[in-house]
């Protein structure tokens, strides 16, 4: 039985007079892969930041595992478009945060570097890596200590098309192996439909549409095209065209 990990109830967010999120209500099940898509400025990143506890709701409540989020959500990790690695630390130290004498932590870092295919780069510094490699380090770092909830804000936005496809596959593989609940914010509708089990369209600061995606993995382009088409309609027109 699936159980609810995250409950978002009647959430509103204002920045001054700007009403950036309106009456958001949604439940996210444990183990789900959720995608939030929609036009720029719609409020996707704001919702992610509220879930991460990086900002406070104006009204309403967000609870994870039955506990209201109040301050930083320590059971979540966020990955952004820029890798935010510490340049003065090696790859391995970015994962262990310099605690390489902690044997368990070091072993976990090495295991994760293996999973993201960077075994040979443990002692390298971020500046010597490609953008794709740095995002793999950032992903490995986000998965240290097995967070209950992984929050991804356009993490692949700066990558070339091929590297992006490979990263999508890597994230999916890790999600399937580790079963962490994942929320991906993306502009790319095909990326959302290729990866997510549940998709929400954020339009004009509201949830305008939601859909469950049951297409089996790996998802061929033809298999995801109908749902991607519907979602594009909603993003552009606010409803599915007949
Ligand atoms: N700290 C802030 N102070 C004031 N306004 C903000 C702040 N953060 C976001 N906003 C405004 O809130 C709205 C939603 O922003 P948000 O970043 O959530 O959109 P988004 O859907 O993630 O867009 P994008 O796809 O471009 O990343 C925008 O109009 C933005 O200007
Ligand atoms: Mg954003």
Short synopsis of the structure:
This is ABC-type nitrate sulfonate bicarbonate transport system, ATPase component. Helix content is 34%, strand content 26%.
Question: Can you put this structure into words, describing what you see?
Answer:
The strands form two sheets. The protein has a six-stranded mixed β-sheet, sandwiched between helices. The chain has helices spanning 44-52, 91-96, 103-115, 131-143, 161-178, 189-195, 221-237; strands at 4-15, 18-29, 33-37, 59-64, 67-68, 76-79, 149-153, 181-185, 198-203, 206-212. The protein has two domains: 1-75 and 147-242, Rossmann fold (3-Layer(aba) Sandwich), CATH 3.40.50; 78-144, no CATH class. β4 and β5 (67-68) form a beta hairpin. The two termini are 36 Å apart. The radius of gyration is 18 Å and the shape is globular. The chain is α/β, with parallel strands linked by helices and 242 residues long. The model has no long low-confidence stretch (mean pLDDT 96). It is 34% helix and 26% strand. α3 (103-115) packs across α4 (131-143) and α6 (189-195) crosses α7 (221-237). It contains seven helices and ten strands. It binds adenosine-5'-triphosphate (ATP) and magnesium ion. Adenosine-5'-triphosphate binds next to β2 and α1.
């Amino acid at each position: 039985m699936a159980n609810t990990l995250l409950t978002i109830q009647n959430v509103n967010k204002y920045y001054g007079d700007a009403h950036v999120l309106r009456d958001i209500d949604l439940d996210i099940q444990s183990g789900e892969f959720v995608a939030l898509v929609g036009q720029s400025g719609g409020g996707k990143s704001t919702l992610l930041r509220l879930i991460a506890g990086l900002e406070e709701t104006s009204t309403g409540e967000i609870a994870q595992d039955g506990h209201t989020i109040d301050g930083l959500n320590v059971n979540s990790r966020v990955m952004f478009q820029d890798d935010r690695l510490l340049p003065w630390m090696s790859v391995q130290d970015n994962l262990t945060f310099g605690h390489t004498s902690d044997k368990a932590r070091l072993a976990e870092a090495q295991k994760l570097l293996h999973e993201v295919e960077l075994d040979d780069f443990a002692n390298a510094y971020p500046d010597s890596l490609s953008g794709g490699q740095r995002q793999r380090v950032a992903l490995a770092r986000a998965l240290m200590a097995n967070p209950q909830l992984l929050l991804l804000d356009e993490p692949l936005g700066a990558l070339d098309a091929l590297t992006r496809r490979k990263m999508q596959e890597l994230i999916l593989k890790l999600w399937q192996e580790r079963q962490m609940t994942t929320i991906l914010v993306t502009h790319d509708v095909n990326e959302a439909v290729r990866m997510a089990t549940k998709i929400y369209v954020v339009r004009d600061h509201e949830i305008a549409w939601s859909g469950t995606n049951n297409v089996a993995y790996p998802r061929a382009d033809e298999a995801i095209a109908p749902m991607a088409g519907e979602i594009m309609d909603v993003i552009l027109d606010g409803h599915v065209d007949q």
